[in-house]
Amino acid sequence: MADSKALTTRATDFSAWYNELIARAELADYSPVRGCMVIRPNGYAIWEQMQRALDQMFKDTGHQNAYFPLFIPQSFLSREAEHVEGFAPETAVVTHGGGKELEEPLVIRPTSETIIYAMYAKWIQSYRDLPLLINQWANVVRWEMRTRLFLRTTEFLWQEGHTAHATEAEAEEETRRMLGVYRTFMEEWMSMPVITGRKTDSERFAGALRTYSCEALMQDNKALQAGTSHNLGQNFSRAFEVTFQTASGDLDHVWNTSWGVSTRLVGALIMIHGDDAGLVCPPRLAQYQVVIVPIYRTDEERSAVLEASDRVRRELVSAGVRVHLDARDGMKPGAKYYEWEGRGVPLRLEVGPRDVAAGAVMLARRTGGKKEHLPLAGLPVRIIELMAQMQHDLLEASRARREAASIRNATKEQFLAHIEGPGGLVYAGFCGSGECEADIKERTKATIRVLPDEEFRSPEPPVVCMWCGRPSVAEAVWAKAY
Ligand SMILES: [Zn+2]
Fold first, then answer.
1. CA of 465 to the centre of ligand 1 (A)
2. What's the mean pLDDT in 76-85?
3. Helix, strand, coil percentages in the chain from 3-state DSSP, rounded to 5
4. At 464, is the secondary structure helix, strand, or coil?
5. Are residues 337 and 310 part of one domain?
6. Structural domain span for residue 460
7. Ligand 1 centroid to 470 CA: how many Å?
8. Taking the complete model, does pTM exceed 0.85, yes or no?
9. Is residue 204 in a domain?
10. Is 122 helix (H, G, I), strand (E, B) or coil?
11. Mean pLDDT in residue range 206-225
12. What's the gap in Å between 329 CA and the centre of ligand 1?
């Protein structure tokens, strides 16, 4: 059972708060292998809800799931020059199998472009085989030096979409479409507002033409890259000879995209909504959307209250609500409230003898507000309304917090004061030079999160690079990031 000591507050030490929240809510634990994570049932349930929603969205946009092997021949990784340079330092390599040294070492996938495109070379012959739209749910391994539960672990779970197209325009359209799918998921399911845009060359995926990203601002004013979508151009199809016969009979290389989100999203969910009492889970992703706590003293009260509670439970289940009746004996209601609060359950219904007599229940919201009596008549409809409201309010509160922590058209001095002070997002002009980026990163640890899409850009486009004063080629969003 979770301990009863209060969490370190976010204001005191955000990082300690994060770790304690995960332990308290029993979301994950450290593994015997350094840098790896055990995802406990409460944490895995959130990931499952995420998977379910995303998987449906992928299928609705025409994708199918498949599975490719965990092991990749080491030589595959070297075929695309940038790719190997980007991933070689963090690969885990298997050199022995069955007690014998392998002829060729096997890399444990850090990402699956190489193995997947080697297969696509066999499967794609003609323009009629295109587009090929495949997603895989898998684990990957990247040998990280500094790890944090959910945010950066040596092994993590994710999905990686890999598609092949006949033209560059179709690949670009797919890349943008899937970025849009991620954005919809993050806003409508996670209640997490994101800024979309393109990455600069220094932050681009190793081997991609262009990388697009969804960026969110956490409560400690650090940004988090929540999902990426890459237009790979023909880089991998040339390396793996993925060719097809065009409608006019020529031979051409396919155009690829890849896109992914990972269990990092669970970390994002914690950091964008959590409070000093623990996790706050948006209803659409909550394992339990409603918990019912029966309150009784005598045996007589107990049977009446439990019976009424179970009736409420069954009604909510039939309305499609994920509900749990906490009928544990020998545990005080207050202790149950505390536990479910820490786990982020959106709504709690308390059922006592007086409520039963009055044909009502007592409602408490995870995100505050006064407790209120709800009549049993029409309860499921009211619960569904309350959940929709909470889903919406969490999104708007996060958006308001992000905007309050953003400054626009910043000068160098304002940038430094913001980044080294309260932190948050800085919108400013950028000359396009990698030297400016590197200089800023070295001095402040801030990076360009994205060159934002039009809807996020400032009404007045910046004229000069806020760092070097040369003409600006694009507005950029800077922040310190996870
Ligand atoms: Zn510059």
1. 5
2. 83
3. 40, 30, 35
4. strand
5. yes
6. 406-479
7. 6
8. yes
9. yes
10. helix
11. 96
12. 65
